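User: Sequence recovery, please. Input:
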């Protein structure tokens, strides 16, 4: 078993995390998120070319035609592309422009349109789903452990979510419904890791109520470190494969999960566990105490 002193620099890591959360807020509210068609409304057009073509030619052709607010991405095979536009031009007009300019036959395979009102409702639904998930996790941890564990777990989850969204704002990556699905997956993964550590901390607290709390938490983190690294490592191997080979459509989702696993593993050790010291977690589990926060 390892014998690392994880809590030796707990104040430093908490300060680093607080700074990252602060700068994430600054980025989200100043730079904003690159919202996808799901949230801001628009049209997604899936087209197939007869032969592979430089994607820049497609972009230049649409730009010359005075089409604003569009993006072009590769999708599936080398001949398939996804074009995102606002609703100011019809898919058939885009097809005609490209065929005329590029002298190539283009087949429209799929069209998905989302209106601005639907996009606004989807944003509200996404926020509600994340909040309800956090509330459910908070109540579950309170019921299973004590309010200090519950608070520590939720702070760690908020830390993971805010920093992940901040990275999307920093890099200008498209933020759509698939990223919301990724954030909910991160919540589930991160809290699972935290619960494993909390279980061991509670077990050690029951065995030894006289040693310093920091010693028991360090011992618990070392007890679970091997499992944490194996679980995170194997999960990362799978999701990195999706990130590299999954294509453009899955890239944002895979990136969010990859980053979330890394930051979630970090927060389970350096945020969720040290918080128990600051909030003076219950020491003697044989005595019932008032759980009111």
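Assistant: Recovered sequence (293 residues):
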């Amino acid at each position: 078993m390892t014998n690392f002193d994880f809590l030796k620099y707990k104040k430093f890591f908490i300060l680093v995390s607080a700074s990252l959360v602060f700068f994430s807020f600054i980025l989200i509210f100043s730079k904003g998120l690159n919202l996808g068609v799901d949230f801001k409304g628009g049209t997604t057009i899936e087209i197939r070319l007869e032969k592979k073509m430089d994607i820049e030619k497609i972009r230049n052709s649409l730009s010359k035609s005075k089409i604003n607010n569009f993006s072009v991405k590769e999708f599936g095979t080398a001949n398939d592309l996804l074009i995102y536009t606002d609703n100011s031009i019809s898919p058939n007009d885009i097809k005609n422009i490209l065929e005329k300019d590029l002298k190539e036959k283009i087949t429209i395979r799929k069209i998905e349109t989302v209106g601005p009102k639907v996009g606004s409702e989807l944003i509200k639904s996404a926020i509600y789903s994340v909040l309800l998930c956090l509330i459910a996790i908070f109540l579950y941890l309170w019921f299973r452990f004590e309010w200090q564990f519950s608070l520590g777990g939720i702070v760690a989850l908020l830390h993971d979510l805010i920093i992940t969204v901040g990275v999307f704002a920093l890099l200008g990556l498209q933020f759509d419904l698939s990223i919301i699905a990724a954030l909910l997956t991160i919540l589930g993964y991160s809290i699972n890791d935290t619960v494993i550590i909390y279980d061991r901390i509670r077990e050690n607290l029951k065995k030894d109520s006289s040693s310093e709390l920091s010693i028991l938490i360090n011992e618990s983190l070392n007890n679970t470190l091997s499992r944490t690294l194996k679980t995170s490592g194997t999960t990362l191997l799978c999701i990195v494969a999706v990130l590299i080979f999954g294509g453009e459509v899955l890239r944002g989702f895979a990136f969010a999960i990859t980053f979330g696993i890394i930051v979630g593993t970090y927060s389970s050790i350096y945020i969720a566990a040290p918080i128990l010291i600051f909030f003076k977690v219950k020491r003697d589990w044989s005595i019932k105490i008032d759980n009111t926060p």
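The chain is about 65% helix and 10% strand.
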